[in-house]
Write a structure and sequence with these properties.
329 residues; Arc Repressor Mutant, subunit A; 3 domains; 8-stranded mixed β-sheet; 12 helices
Length: 329
């Protein structure tokens, strides 16, 4: 079976440590709950028959049944606290009746957050950002290489953008940048992934710089977004909270931070589901002594500003939007 248990737990924001025996794990959920389990070998589909066959004489509440998917009956049994399950489709952990799932979009509270179903259109959304970030025509093969996909995928995505982009032989280019930005904004599901809230008394810019330096030592990549990135791209407002995307979860406790709920955090870290954040990020200076921060692309910064709860978020986002929609002279 090709179900990566560790990767699923990481995507859910669940921390894994050794249990009291060599066969058990100690799991810590994002809400602070902790539990010890013994993982059962993954299967294609969890069924009632499979659960009975594997459980044997072991207390089923101590086992973690893993499958690519699960029947409705198995899911209901998990919700009733009879068993514990971890599935890949959808990515979900149900333990002791509590359900933990991946948040595919921005945090609650934003008026721009629509409810969506179906598979996220990562390639199309990445193509839209690519075209917003450049003013020169780009051949589909070049875009495909930049986004780590196929030229056929780019061609299909471009067809969906009929009227907003054009290809006159030299490559794809945005026709109406303002409308393209509006369309992307209204359809994008957000970077997704698990968010972690942290609090520190240090100035926000120092918090962000400290985290970037720390994760570099751990060989984890970082991208700065939100207020700090906006201040670098289009200075307008004083940063009030930090936001950093990471390629993997990092525990900042003991490094000047205290874990807090996201809504109370002075800094939020996130391991995004949208892999294009790393592909479309602008290059940064890598020389020693450079004070350049690794900044997310302007479209993601714009998105994160709109998703914030700051009263002046719209005005700040408009400053970044101007960078994305202006036509060079």
């Amino acid at each position: 079976m090709s179900v990566d248990v560790a990767a699923l737990l990481q995507e859910l924001g669940v921390r894994v440590a050794e249990g009291s025996s060599e066969w058990s794990w100690l799991l810590r959920a994002p809400d602070g709950g902790s539990f010890e389990v013994e993982s059962v070998a993954p299967v294609e589909r969890l069924t009632a028959h499979r659960v009975r066959a594997v459980g044997g004489g072991t207390d089923p509440r101590r086992l973690l049944y893993v499958g690519k998917s699960a029947t409705d009956g198995v899911v209901e049994a998990a919700k009733a606290s009879e068993i514990n399950i971890l599935t890949a489709e959808p990515t979900r952990l149900i333990f002791d009746g509590r359900s933990y799932s991946v948040n595919p979009g921005p945090q609650p509270g934003s008026r721009l957050r629509p409810q969506r179903t179906g598979r996220p259109a990562w390639i199309r959304w990445a193509l839209e950002r690519y075209l917003l970030l450049t003013h020169e025509p780009s051949r589909q093969s070049v875009i495909a290489e930049s986004l780590g996909t196929t030229q056929q995928s780019i061609s299909r995505a471009a067809q969906y953008l009929d009227g907003l982009v054009t290809d006159e032989g030299e490559g794809l280019v945005a026709v109406d940048r303002a409308k393209l930005l509006e369309r992307w904004r209204n359809e994008y599901a957000g970077p997704g992934g698990q968010e972690f809230g942290w609090y520190s008394l240090d100035p926000v810019n120092e918090q962000v710089e400290g985290v970037v330096d720390l994760v570099a030592l751990l060989e984890v990549k970082a991208l700065v977004s939100g207020d700090i990135a906006a201040d670098r791209l289009a200075p307008w407002k004083l940063p009030s909270r930090g936001r950093v995307y990471l390629t993997g979860p990092v525990d900042l406790g003991g490094d000047g931070f205290v874990a807090v709920p996201v809504e109370e955090a002075s800094l939020v870290t996130c391991v995004p589901r949208d892999a294009s954040l790393w592909l479309l990020a602008p290059p940064t200076e890598a020389e020693a002594g450079s004070d350049d921060l690794p900044i997310a692309d302007a479209a993601i910064v714009y998105w994160d500003l709109l998703m914030s709860t700051d009263p002046d978020r719209d005005e700040a986002a408009d400053q970044v939007a101007t960078l994305l929609t202006r036509t060079p002279r």
